[in-house]
Design brief:
- It contains three helices and two strands.
- The chain has a single domain, classed as Rossmann fold.
- It starts with a strand and ends with a helix.
- Helices cover about 55% and strands about 10% of the residues.
- The relative contact order is 0.16.
């Protein structure tokens, strides 16, 4: 399961969490990680099923509907 989020979403979530140790993470590093994950997912898809979920417009922490939808998607693919 890959919860994919854009750089803007990642940066916003880091700021909202307010964890001191995360505040110094460079945007370039997050962009690099996103690219690395995308490359890894592309390779892994050749051998494994990857459920990729767009996490940009979801709130799994505060949104019960979003969380329930995530669980439903997972159950659909992994009964």
């Amino acid at each position: 399961i890959y919860l994919k989020a854009s750089l803007d979403t990642l940066v916003g979530r880091i700021k909202r969490r307010g964890r001191a140790y995360e505040q110094s993470i460079q945007h370039d590093y997050l962009a690099y990680l996103n690219q690395a994950y995308d490359a890894w997912i592309a390779r892994a898809r050749k051998d494994f099923f990857i459920l990729e979920i767009n996490a940009d417009e979801t709130d799994y922490v505060n949104g019960d509907d979003d969380l329930n939808e995530l669980v439903a998607q997972i159950q659909k693919h992994c009964p």
